[in-house]
Design goal:
The complex is a heterodimer of chains A (209) and B (109).
Chain A lengths: L2 H5 L10 H26 L14 E2 L6 E2 L5 H26 L3 H31 L8 H32 L9 H26 L2
Helix pairs in contact in A: 2-5, 2-6, 3-4, 3-6, 4-5, 5-6
Chain B lengths: L3 H4 L11 H23 L7 H20 L7 H26 L8
Classes of the chains: A mainly alpha (209), B mainly alpha (109).
Chain lengths: 209, 109
């Protein structure tokens, strides 16, 4: 962070920017929020009395249709890859913002938003597919805990996209000089947090059978 | 040579990594994700699936936190604000899993 950026805020007892302190404190509280959702999923894991199930086959008694494990690993692996790359894109946007490279800032920030939008699109497709397969919020414990956890994560991705969108508009209007790069850094920290939470969700829900 | 903005960095916060370092981390994350998915489909190592996936998950998490979230370079106070809640979160998750996995005998009516 530049000295100019520090000069923009009042001196603090820690010597650190209060806005950065605030976002880290918020992220810390978000860790506990997602811990409650993840622990609920893990506690009720494998305790659904009826299907569809995440990895095992299930015969729908209503129509006799056999539904294989409902999770689509290839699709979610692709979504995970896209979200990881969006994290990479936003650090490059920050790199450009801190050095006054406007093209780099706008290009990579746009790429970040495209990545986030693709991830959200994948989640909407997945939710839609699950509902057609008979998995709803109230169908079984898996449906309740899965939709709650991944739904809240998707909500966070949506908030991140809106936040990054406002920063992108600011950058396009030429109002994000290097001394204001912290505005992007704070939004980027939130975006990375959404990414690391997905790293956990992808492993615990999708990959561990 | 570091960028002028980095040269004047606050004593508590050091220069962020280079674009090359970010790219190396991105490649590592992709490789680790591919490894995770590959492991998922290998039946012969089903016994070790959970520990392998947990280790890969922790490595990916740490790489993003240290390099992309700049915890490796920034003030240790930020690390504390992130790591302490994670510690509590892990304790809560493990405790609840253990608590609910215990088979309680039927309570007398």
């Amino acid at each position: 962070m530049s000295q100019d950026a520090h000069a923009m805020h009042m001196p603090t007892t820690t010597g650190l920017d209060s806005r950065k302190m605030a976002i880290w404190t918020f992220i810390g509280s978000e860790c506990l929020f997602f811990a409650s959702l993840i622990s609920t999923y893990m506690v009720y894991r494998g305790k659904s009395l009826t299907g569809p199930y995440p990895h095992e086959s299930w015969t729908n008694p209503a129509n006799g249709e056999v539904v294989k494990g409902i999770l689509n690993i290839p699709l979610t692996s692709f979504s995970t890859f896209v979200l990881l790359m969006s994290s990479f894109a936003v650090v490059l946007a920050l790199y450009g913002a801190q050095r006054g490279k406007r093209g780099m800032l706008i290009g990579w920030l746009s790429a970040t938003m495209v990545g986030g939008a693709i991830f959200l699109g994948g989640q909407v497709y997945e939710f839609n597919h699950f509902v057609h397969e008979g998995l709803t919020l109230h169908q079984n414990l898996f449906g309740s805990t899965f939709f709650t956890l991944t739904g809240f994560h998707g909500g966070h991705v949506t908030v991140g996209l809106i936040w990054l969108g406002t920063v992108l508009v600011t950058a396009i209007r030429g109002k994000l000089p290097p001394e204001k790069a912290l505005n992007l850094e704070i939004a980027a920290l939130y975006w990375h947090f959404v990414d690391v939470i997905w790293i956990i969700i992808f492993t615990l829900i999708y990959l561990i059978k | 040579m570091s960028h002028p903005a980095e040269a004047h960095a606050h004593p508590e916060e050091h220069a962020h990594p280079s674009a090359g370092t970010y790219a190396k981390i991105a490649v590592t994350l992709v490789i680790l994700t591919a490894l995770e998915v590959a492991v998922y489909y290998v039946e012969s190592i089903r016994t070790y699936l959970v520990p392998i996936l947990i280790v890969l998950m922790i490595i990916k998490f740490a790489l993003v936190a240290m390099y992309y979230m700049h915890l490796k370079q920034d003030s240790k106070l930020f690390s504390g604000l992130f790591v302490f809640p994670i510690f509590i979160a892990v304790v809560v998750i493990v405790a609840l899993i253990l608590l609910f996995s215990i088979k309680h005998p039927q309570m007398p009516q």
